[in-house]
Write a structure and sequence with these properties.
Blueprint (H helix, E strand, L loop, with lengths): L1 E2 L6 H10 L5 H21 L2 E2 L23 H13 L19 H6 L5 H5 L2 H18 L1 H7 L3 E2 L2 E2 L2 H11 L1 H9 L14 H7 L23
Amino acid sequence: MKKKVAKFSVLPVVGASIFFYSFSTNKTKDLNAAVLEEFRTVNEELNFDVPYTPDVTVFDPQLRSYPQLGKSYVAFKEALGFKESGGDYSVVNEFGYMGKYQFGRGTLKLIGIKDTNLFLNSPDLQEAAFYANSSRNKWILRKDIEKFQNQIVNGIRITESGILAAAHLAGPGNVKKFLRSNGANSFSDGFGTSIKYYFKKFEGFDTSFVIPDRKAKVNNPSVI
């Protein structure tokens, strides 16, 4: 980007030409010509290039980043939501699973949600649904959590958070089958993601925040 800057010290020179205006016409013309030449010279000397500064994108809406949350419950659910959908509350996959955490209609009904349009358009409702489903799964799997916590099953260290993540993917029944068969009875979803992968990827998070509840539901989803 180029900018032209005129040197203000030329102004006194122009003023001086007015003072000498009483000289003869020829002398005045000569003086004016000299002043103009001086002005051009100074002006040309002060033409300079300003280095171009490229535009810097401050925020890219296509990128999602999360604060450092360690191994907290929030970190657990955000990591799981990102794995399921990239954190997109509005997505519906080819198998009909919906939202940030990719819930099926059957699971939503179990926790008290029947209106899928309302579900897809309410991030708060989806977060409440995730907690309710985790709470229900934790109650169903409470004995398996107690028995297999920190045990090695088929080469995988079992933790409570890994169990809850695997239950989210495959359902609590398939988690029981995997654990009680010492890993022989596994499961993969329609995209080929295995239950073993979820045990590994989501191990070691603090999910003590989730309270086991056999009847966990999202109360009054229409007002969330």
